[in-house]
Design goal:
Blueprint lengths: L39 H21 L15 H5 L2 H8 L28 E7 L12 H19 L6 E4 L9 H11 L6 E3 L11 H11 L6 E5 L2 E6 L8 H20 L5 E5 L18 H13 L3 E6 L6 H6 L2 E3 L2 E5 L19 H4 L2 E8 L2 E8 L5 E3 L6 E2 L34 E2 L11 E6 L3 E7 L9 E11 L6 E8 L7 E10 L4 E11 L6 H11 L7 H7 L3 E5 L8 E6 H8 L4 H5 L3 E11 L6 E13 L5 E2 L2 E2 L13 H6 L1
Parallel strand pairs: 1-2, 2-3, 5-6, 6-7, 7-9, 8-13, 20-21
Antiparallel strand pairs: 1-10, 4-5, 8-9, 10-11, 11-12, 14-17, 15-16, 16-24, 17-23, 18-22, 18-24, 19-20, 19-23, 22-25, 25-26
Helix pairs in contact: 7-8
Length: 660
């Protein structure tokens, strides 16, 4: 029988009197009285680690206590095991040390035994996002009911998971009643809970979240790791936008810790957990609603450096089982997988028949079977015995050439000398298409080409959802500019019917190699004030971080954004000639365009649609696009465009701003 003892994590200043995944090698530090350790080499290593831990602890705990205050009743052999095992797990590993196996005996599968080939199972539950227990909103009710069903199923299963990973967004709003409700739900599970920070779970320094995590798991730090079988597990927080010095400091500490941890475990296959998705997920919001680009690239560099990170698991997206399969990626040796959600999914609008009920209520979870160095992912839904074994073939390779803006800002992309395939006679060759989810039947995003009729784009409402908002799809390419000449974009567009809440556009972004210099948007629209994802997507592409839904309006106030209304008569082709230099100089000052120093421009054509209105769509065709260096007036259907101050105004994002 294992005697329970007080144990302490490197970020923990209160004794814990129970066994939990808290110390499951949490930062893997053996905390002992220095006088217990007789070996001088071991004492030197521990002293160095104590100093490292003290500096890390300062970040999260205002009250610092001596990290050697626990396990004082254990002998050196009990604490460290053999000298060989202890040194193998410590030397050269920075702050990575092994907790004694005696403390892991209750959960034997979590005890690290190199080369053991252990087999075990764990569960992943994403985005419970609960509110107060008495909140009768459908999202909260479904989350509570399905979580209880899942707990009962896992507690009574013939093969129980060794632990449950909550993949972030534990609550919707981090306030006492919601936290109490999540705590109540987590305690239904008769196996260790392991928590991951989500974007709803407080911002740095994560004080409320770390208190909850400490209570349920014993872990205080929002980033930590442990081993199970042959695998190394890493957990990292989000909400690191770098918009304050405190957040920049925490981000730097996280990256430094992550680099050390990955290096120390270079020989172990590793699973990385972060709440936010890392790869495209097929909806407009998922283009900007994740890590800042710079942080994502730094994390990627660390994850691929040693080749040990094999999987990246995230929540956040709110998807189902079929969607999880279709949005799985493989990139640089890492398999990226979005865990299906406990709550109602986003409006992907399809699901395998056995799990179709989940479209309205959620209730999804994943069982992971570990067999040596391989994983099998099993999709499940509360209330049914059906399961879906995700095929390894679902991890499709990510092609940077097809989606160059995913890991680059627009200004950083290389420009081509000329506009290619402007008539779309070669399909979308030369164009970059938005990465959009494709349903098996009745797609709600469509991009297609027809001889003589150019390219057609469609966005329509697939299914009503509380998470729905505007969606867009576009084709674009970046072309080099000669500052002494005037670029003129010509072409045609056609719309079949006027959208109820949506529109179409031709957009020109003027840039150098580092920044946006000016944006021109020519559009037809209805209720454009209801569009807040389109400006945020374009803002993220340009700046590499989340921008406001008022991004277009903010550009206009600085006279960087210019917006013209286009004729929207249906079932007829509209011809346009857009002289970029003429329009810029007329709305600013003569010679203003040449003074910009623009060296490239993005040409984009597309449509957007407000997807929380049922049964409507936006559709348009664009054809005969040309980009020449010439002179002449800007006209649409033979009419001159206005060049007064009205061009600096638009209403994108306004209704969202009014609500806030």
């Amino acid at each position: 029988m294992v005697r329970k003892r007080a144990i302490q994590s490197p970020f923990h200043h209160e004794h814990q009197t129970y066994l939990s995944p808290a110390p499951i090698r949490n930062a893997k530090v053996a905390t002992v009285y220095p006088h217990v350790v007789k070996n001088p080499l071991i004492r030197a290593v521990l002293a160095r680690l104590a100093a490292d831990l003290q500096s890390l602890e300062n970040l999260y705990n205002p009250e610092i206590t001596n990290p050697w205050k626990t396990m004082n009743n254990l002998s050196e052999n009990t604490i460290l095991g053999s000298r060989r095992r202890f040194l193998k797990n410590t030397i050269g590993a920075g702050t990575v040390l092994a907790l004694p196996d005696i403390l892991l005996a209750k959960n034997k599968v979590l005890a690290p035994v190199v080369g053991s080939g252990e087999r075990f199972r764990f569960a992943m539950l994403a985005d419970p996002q609960v509110s107060a227990q008495n909140n009768r909103g459908s999202v909260n009710v479904n989350a509570q009911e399905t979580a209880a069903l899942i707990a009962d199923e896992l507690n009574t299963a013939a093969r129980k998971p060794e632990f449950v990973v909550w993949v972030g967004d534990l609550v919707n709003v981090f306030e006492p009643k919601s936290v109490a409700n999540f705590r109540r739900i987590a305690k239904m599970f008769k196996m260790p809970n392991i928590l991951l920070h989500g974007n709803h779970d407080t911002r740095p320094p994560y004080e409320g979240y770390t208190q909850l995590q400490k209570e349920l798991t014993g872990v205080v730090s929002p980033f930590y790791s442990f081993d199970a079988g042959l695998w190394h597990f890493i957990f990292t927080p989000c909400n690191l936008e770098g918009d304050s010095q405190a957040r920049k400091d925490i981000e730097q500490r996280l990256l430094e810790w992550l680099a050390r941890d990955l290096e120390a475990n270079a020989g172990r296959p590793t699973i990385m957990f972060n709440h936010l998705h890392f790869m495209p997920q097929g909806l407009s919001q998922t283009e900007f609603y994740h890590h800042p680009l710079a942080l994502r690239k730094q994390m990627l560099d660390l994850m691929v450096k040693h080749g040990n990170v094999k999987y990246y698991f995230n929540g956040h997206v709110h998807n189902g089982i079929q969607t999880a399969e279709k949005t799985a990626w493989e990139y640089k040796g890492i398999r990226f997988f979005t865990v299906p959600t406990i709550i109602q999914p986003r409006p992907y609008g399809e699901e395998y028949p056995a799990f179709k009920e989940g479209i309205e209520r959620g209730g999804y979870f994943v069982l992971v079977d570990v067999d040596g160095d391989s994983l099998t992912l099993r999709g499940r839904m509360a209330g049914t015995d059906e399961e879906y074994v995700f095929p390894v073939s679902m991890f499709k390779p990510f092609d940077e050439k097809k989606n160059p803006v995913w890991f680059n800002r627009l200004p950083e992309l290389t420009a081509k000398p000329l506009l290619e395939n402007g008539d779309f006679s070669k399909g979308f060759e030369g164009w970059t298409l938005s990465d959009r989810y494709r349903r098996d039947n009745d797609p709600f995003f469509l991009a297609e080409t027809k001889d003589g009729q150019g390219a057609g784009f469609l966005v329509k409402t697939p299914v009503e959802s509380i998470w729905a908002d505007d969606e867009y799809i576009q084709a674009s390419q970046i072309v080099a500019l000669d500052p002494v000449q005037s670029p003129v974009l010509g072409g045609r567009y056609l719309l079949r019917e006027q959208p109820k809440a949506g529109g179409g556009y031709i957009m020109i972004s003027l840039m150098n190699d580092s920044e946006l210099l000016g944006l021109m948007m020519f559009r037809w629209s209805n209720q454009e004030e209801r569009s807040n994802y389109l400006p945020r997507c374009i803002g993220y592409q340009i700046h590499g971080r989340q921008m406001s839904w008022m991004f277009f309006q903010q550009l206009g106030k600085r006279k960087q954004g210019m917006y013209w209304k286009l004729p929207d008569a249906t079932n007829q082709w509209h011809d346009f000639t857009l002289n970029v230099q003429e329009l810029y100089d007329a709305t600013h000052k003569k010679g203003g365009f040449a003074g910009l120093g623009a060296t490239k421009m993005q040409v984009a054509v597309g449509v957007w649609n407000q997807n929380n209105l049922a049964r409507h769509s936006s559709e348009a065709r664009f054809a005969a696009l040309t980009l020449t260096q010439s002179i002449g007036a800007s006209k649409v259907d033979g009419q001159h465009l206005p060049v007064d101050d009205s061009v600096f105004t638009c209403s994108f994002g306004q209704s969202t701003d009014d609500k806030n």
